[in-house]
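name: query_chain
kind: protein
chains: 1
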Amino acid sequence: MQIQDALAAVDALPQTCLKQRSRLYASKPLGPQDQPDFVNAVCRIETELSPWGLLEALQGIEQTQGRIKKRHWGERCIDLDILLYDDLQISDAHLQVPHKEIALRDFVLLPLAEIAPGLLIPGKGRVDVLISQLTETYVIPLQTDQTNQPGVG
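structure:
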């Protein structure tokens, strides 16, 4: 599966170790609804790469896995984002950390809460509070057997 391949590629990055991952979740797509549901997960890594070095490495994984951007918020085979990087807040032309939409996306918050309950997202608040403020959710857990396990199963 595409996500397992991506997680394995992240774990294989230089100076990087996959420490934890959420289960997989299905969600309705943002934007155009004439596309299949998305499958989402989050992971926690330890890395010596800078945030910009990590971004470049993740974009390389996307390219290797055949990502082609067809339209804004459209279908794609893989999308790797840096949600958080320690307690840093970064905003430049190439990178925003925390991810600019993190507080509004159920498909990010729910898996994030699974691996880091009570997490404080810099400039946004606690993940559990942000979840309680969601007006609706379309996220469905797809698996239950590998929650919080390092590696890719």
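note: The two ends are 11 Å apart (CA to CA).
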